[in-house]
């Protein structure tokens, strides 16, 4: 045999064995979320094959193996069988270890076998989920993967959660999500070692759980007139008869199925039955339990303030709620029963004879104390059944019920207060845990509630607040994300808002704080994205959205624009003006300086190609840029924009009124003068304004431009009148005044505010830029 043929055969052997031979594993290639407490990488690896078996100490742990068995079945077409006797090798062996904490596990992988120790069902489940994340990402595919080596590194992992409440709340009232989606979500939570699913089953816009004793709750309360084609806050109250309805609910059989499924994935389902407010759906079904006893319809959209609430005076209300809760507690084994308690407007209580009588006999000073009486009474009932009442932080008002646990949502204040009083708390502050908030710049994202909670912010979350004493910290059960569903009409949108932010939350709740770093976490996110793609999850890619930050040089009026993405070290490239985004686009490395009206287009590049949304923004230079502005009426301290030159700095505000580019006036007009320094030809002035009526931001009802050639006497150049109109959506608009060309040294701009909102409070006026041409 010739030498070259021998070489060829040898080479072929090596190629052949490449399939079998070990991959090189490094710590960086191990990408588990949430990050395990301790991980040691050893040399060697374990390779799964169709003979690999499971060995369990007890039948009751069998279902902990469901997810892994299902994955191998789909991708490798193998059944991981359960051995009746311990095989000498090629086995995943589960062993009870009573010295480990609840939910903790150890995972030992060597070339011979895999061993998982735990002291509970959940511990085994988590050990196996970690194993799944050690496998190649292809394990998540929905089809068979041929020629794959299912190899994992030899590791030793000791893992345990930092907090025992690791939750997600789904609002199934504002929009209804069926049993299958709930079960799918349960799988995805377990994948990240989350253990609590809070179901918000009751709200004004829909009652979502069958109660046998009160059938009208779902016959009437689960359906509303279908106005899904209109914006949430622009859906007029409707009569119900004959109209097309939107709705749905879980039957008790379905609830049992959800609860059992969740249990198999280590997840407790906490039911929330709202009271005394957010219950228009219940009052529509049984008006006798409200103060006014008037018929109401289930609202199809936004409702504020919430005045149709349960009557706190009638004993029959409490009997009704106790009967409901009895059925609920029969269905949900959860130790915690959530009774809501938030956002009750108590005007009806003030006028109701029953409520007034109750206050008198109970010696209650005000309606806040009546709310406290309400919750305390429910708490006595719930604890008499051996359960614990949990409610939103409003349950603190007027005095907290003795055995209650508080869910802090209006920041961390409620959590601080309740823990100081020795109560347990779950932290879910809007700032870090509200998944109905935007996760990227508003103009690049689907409609959301408001707010801005990008994933890097979620990753900063810590349920234990710095100012807490050790004692208070011990009362922190953990944290939870809340997905309110006003703007979540579909499962695709629900997925978009949950993933990947939930992954960041899982790590803040599971992993030791000291191990956390956003940069390092984000590199693991890339792997998670690949897995989510295989899992067909509509996850958000907002971390890759290109954003611009602008600075004006006060001396030269030049603008520098810096580009960035939330994801670190992204390859961003850009072109200017009419140029197309092509592979030859300039790699972005330093802020771009611009001296004239310029359009910037930018994108993230992967393998020299633009990927995802293209960022595009035009920066309009004009005659007022950098000029001195004198304010005749001062803007509010809460919305100063960028201060003195905000109105003439080229930088435009977005639909997010908190973006720092807006100046605002409350209950007052805007009146300012721009000094052009020398006689300048002027023919157009634009006033950039926003309308967002939800938070009481209204367009001006009139804008007026006046010109002067001496800075003393001003003459009107143009006026636009724009009477108030109801408007359910957020709008940005330039009020443009054009007039005959004329010379001016000073431009005065007045914007007349609506001053009072239709609801009675002060009306805001928001302006971001005055463009002079
Ligand atoms: C406040 S958070 C609510 C919900 C809304 C949510 C929107 C809480 C206890 N109540 O009813 O859906 O804001 O973010």
- The CATH architecture of the largest domain comes to Alpha-Beta Barrel
Q: Which class of secondary structure composition applies to the elements?
A: alpha/beta
User: What would CATH call the homologous superfamily of the largest domain?
Assistant: Glycosidases
Number of domains: 4
Q: How many extended strands?
A: 35
| Lateral strand order in the biggest sheet | 8-9-14-15-16-17-18-21
Instruction: Write down the Rg.
Output: 31 Å
Query: Helix amount, in percent?
Result: 10-25%
Unreliably modeled segments: 1-19
Dominant shape: globular
User: What's the rounded overall pLDDT mean?
Assistant: 94
Molecules bound to protein: ligand TNX
Biggest sheet architecture: 8 strands, parallel, barrel
Termini, distance in Å?
87 Å
Could you describe the 3D structure shown?
The chain has 773 residues and is α/β, with parallel strands linked by helices. The chain folds into four domains: 3-159, Chitobiase/beta-hexosaminidase domain 2-like (Chitobiase, domain 2); 166-534, Alpha-Beta Barrel (TIM Barrel), CATH 3.20.20; 545-619, Immunoglobulin-like (Sandwich); 628-772, Jelly Rolls. The protein is 24% helix and 28% strand. The protein has an eight-stranded parallel beta barrel with strand order 8-9-14-15-16-17-18-21, surrounded by six helices. Strand 2 (53-55), helix 2 (66-76) and strand 3 (81-82) form a beta-alpha-beta unit. The longest helix is centred in the middle third of the chain and has 18 residues, at 367-384. The chain is globular and about 100 Å long. The N and C termini lie far apart (87 Å). The structure holds ligand TNX.
